Each structure stands twice: as structure tokens, then as C-alpha cells.
Give the backbone structure.
Amino acid sequence: MLRTLRLGYVVSAIAFTTLFLYPWLAAARLFGYRHGLRLVPKVYHCIVRALLGMRISIQGAPSSRRPLLLVANHTSWLDIVVISSFVPAIFVAKQEVEGWPIFGWLAQLQRSIFVNRDRRQLIDTTISLVADALVAGEIVAIFPEGTSTDGTDVFPFRSALIGAARETLRKAEHLSAIFVQPLSIAYVGANRRLAVWAREDEIPIDQHVLQVIGMRRIEVTLKWGDPIPADIRSDRKVLAKQLEEAIRQSIAERRHEEIGCVVISNSNLGPAT
């Protein structure tokens, strides 16, 4: 009964928030009001984050340097809610997202850049769009694993989209470097496995959304790494490996801490009486 009431309350609240805020975003996009395009999604995702009961532990901070390319691991659609509640990022998303009910519409309004990874000849177009956004002073976020994982490890990073760093510098000759910041996201606590929506999961996204709403509490650790300056001579493959290792180390450290906490907690139980 309580679960049903919560589902009804949260779904209604998110629907109301969407209907109230996103016409403002559509208007900002129509009239080219950049401040609105950045502010409305951030406010929206802060509200959604609170409604879903997300508790976020933060290390570091998003860089204030521009242009800024965020590079993160990817384990759930919740990653977008988490990141967007802190920074007004434009996301590079797989082409399939554009056709998802509701999510695709929201992604389009948020100025997402869609990439078809199955057609390599279109990657250059995507890279050019990312570079245009960076030149305009936007924050662009990418998930270079190319898919979502179960969060226990980090898949090898694809370097193609990181090539947008060089393309940005080619388009904006007044810039000597852009900044690339690694960002690790880990879902922790009792509901960790339920929060993850990996590629191999058979549960449809609409069912996973209802599952997430029913959890009442989602614990997340967010670690902002040190931004790395990339200039025209930077090798995208070397940079991708550097970012991958930084995020993999962060995830491994978080898992080690979590395992340690479980061991300590169990040791405090004492012998059964």
C-alpha cells in the first residue's frame, strides 16, 4: 500500500514538474535564451533527484575552466539526473535514446547530441557538433564506454569522441587548450544493484524507472577528478587511456571502501548468544 502511494506521489510530482518547467525550456530554446537553456534542466534534475530520494556524496568539484569536456563512466540513466543537477551539461547520447518515450523528448529539449555508433561515417559529424558546443562555452558530457555497465568495473574507453578536443582547438584558433575532466559515478549501499541499469539487463526502462521510484533511497558517490588540459598536440588515445585509468581507480577505491565497511559492520555484530 505504501509503495503504491509513493509511486503515485513521485510519478505525479515528476509529471507536474515536467509540465511546468519544460515549456520554459522550449521557449528558451526557441528564442535562443542561453541562460534559460542552462538553468531549467539543472533545476528540473535537482527536483527529480530529491523526489527519487538520492543521497549524493561528493569529492572534488566541477571545473570552472572553459571549454570543458566531462568524461564519465556510465551505469544507469540516473547518471544524467546526477550530473545535470550539478552542471548544465549537454550530453552525447546514443541514437536510440532519441526514440524513447518521454526520455527522448526530454533529451532533445536538453540539447543532447545524438550519435549513431553503428555508422562510423557519422562520427565526424558528431565530433563537429561537440566542438561547436565547446567553442560556444558549453559543458559537454560524454560516456566513452559506449554502453552502460553494472558498475563493478570500467569498460575500455572509445577515443573517437575525445577527438572533439582537437577539433575544438582547430575551430577556435584563439584557444590554446581545452580542459577534460574525469568524473566517476558509483551507486552504493543496499540498493546499489537495483539502481544500475546495465546493457545486459532485460528489464525495460519504464519498469526500471518504477523500480527506482519504489526504492525510496539511492546512495551515490560522485568524484570529480583533476581537469586535464588538452592542446592541439594531444593524442586522443593516450588521453582516453589516462581518463579511463583515473575513473577505474576511483571506482576501485570506492568498492574497496564499501567492502571494508561491510567487514567492519559484520565484525561488530559479535558472537551469537
